[in-house]
What we know:
Layout: H1 14-24, H2 26-29, E1 39-41, E2 46-51, H3 58-61, E3 64-70, E4 73-81, E5 86-91, E6 97-105, E7 114-120, E8 130-133, E9 137-140, E10 145-146, E11 150-152, H4 161-172, E12 178-182, E13 200-202, E14 208-213, H5 215-230, E15 234-240, H6 253-267, E16 273-278, H7 289-302, E17 309-310, E18 328-331, H8 338-345, E19 349-353, E20 357-358, H9 369-381, E21 385-388, E22 390-391, H10 400-403, H11 411-425, E23 431-432, E24 440-443, E25 447-451, E26 459-463, E27 470-476, E28 481-489, E29 492-496, E30 504-509
Parallel strand pairs: 1-7, 11-12, 11-21, 12-15, 15-16, 16-17, 18-19, 19-21, 20-22
Antiparallel strand pairs: 2-5, 3-4, 3-6, 4-5, 6-7, 8-9, 9-10, 13-14, 23-24, 24-25, 25-30, 26-29, 27-28, 27-30
Helix pairs in contact: 1-5, 6-7, 9-11
Amino acid sequence: xxxxxxxxxDHNNYVTRRQALVGALAPLAAAQSGPGPRQVERWxxxxxxxxxxxxxxxxxxxxxAADFQFQHRTVAASGFYDGDGVYxxxxxxxxxxxxxxxxxxxxxxxxxxxxRFTCVAPSKGNHGPVSVxxxxxxxxxxxxxxxxxxxxxxxxxxQGDALEEQTVATLKQSPFNKIRxxxxxxxxxxxxxxxxxxxxARSAAASNDYTQINPVFFQRLEKRVAQLMQAGIQADLILxxxxxxxxxxxxxxENDDRYxxxxxxxxxxxxxxxxxxxxxxxxxxxxxxPDWDRxxxxxxxxxxxxxxxxxxxxxxxxxxxxxxxxHASIQGDEFDKVPGWLDAYRKPVVFDECKYExxxxxxxxxxxxxxxxxxxxxxxxxxxxxxHGETYLNDQEVLWWSKGGVLHGxxxxxxxxxxxxxxxxxxxxxxxxxKPYYPAAMKTNEYYLHYFDYHQPAINQFxxxxxxxxxxxxxxxxxxxxxxxxxxxxxKVQLKLPGKPYMAVQFRKVV
Length: 511
């Protein structure tokens, strides 16, 4: 196909959508407007834009980047083409003070442009990006602990504004501080609709032109990422997946690599972004294991901030011990394997998919709310982190796991209860008790949490450190109650219990 034969870009009312998106991103754009010094908060987003070539194939032919200097340190950030001859570069400053930048390009109108801005203190709620802490856990850049309690809405950003805004509103009221979501649309049961915009120029005959990016597609995505950032929710972006009728999983190596660099240039400055190479990587039959290794390296090398990187499995685990993997993303419920994985990988383990609460026909989508709650407790006791999902049938076929919308299940408030317990008593994360008789985790010498799963003992003996006094509470995870036990305890302790399944006991150090 020659350049003059390319399909025309379906802009999907491009001008109208672009105006709406510009308005939604006004806080970000404010960093580049107005005379005099410009101010950006620490771990916020500085953006500058320039005008350049609009014809031809600027997505391929025009290189654009900027070097940002603070004192004696320089950070290189790639720019990107945003349509209509607009080129942008985004940068997340991590130090307060004056930054200077200079652009680089193979086009004179974009090359050698300089500017400066002042990085000021972060606003309330801005704790900076999340990274791995203490080997098996996570934390924010300012030292604030972060415990991931995530959910999955694969295709929520491809449903149109009304449903997407409803999803954002639901997330803000939910206990979930991370969401798994696909960059590309998904074609699967209960999710057959086309997206409001396509990632590349697409002809009426459904042929993609991978030399022509569609900025509207990515503007829609980054609007949602920005909303999540303002709500304090991490966006775990899935870069490829197998459930595809638009050929995005079969673009060819050159187009794959270019797309990855573009997405990283466009979105890596958002402090809440994580990278997931794939959902069910082993089911994407157009890719080989060396392809996935290459994708990891491209993302790692292109991202100036070192955002978190993972890959999600179908039937075959990727080797999470590889250096470019920051944490293990697991599909399944084999919580008994967590201690071995923690030792082998020396990284956090996240069960991003342990099946879903719901009532659909598929076995993976009809867990009870009680079972979803149980899996969160079992995984937490094992020293891992667990992700939620929901698949309840309804007449509109708006299932949370695919399209978002509202939550219908009963596990979410119970997950919120568990999150509050752990954050209040072990905000840096729990360590599994070695070889426990019943599942148990701890913050050594300070906090111990025991879970009896489906067992229902009416009495149990616990072993606490000698010389340290603890208060005990009996916990009902389903009814979300905490009942204090009289007295203080140390050493070997025997307590009477309700004799009901799925109960827990916590011991808190007396301060």
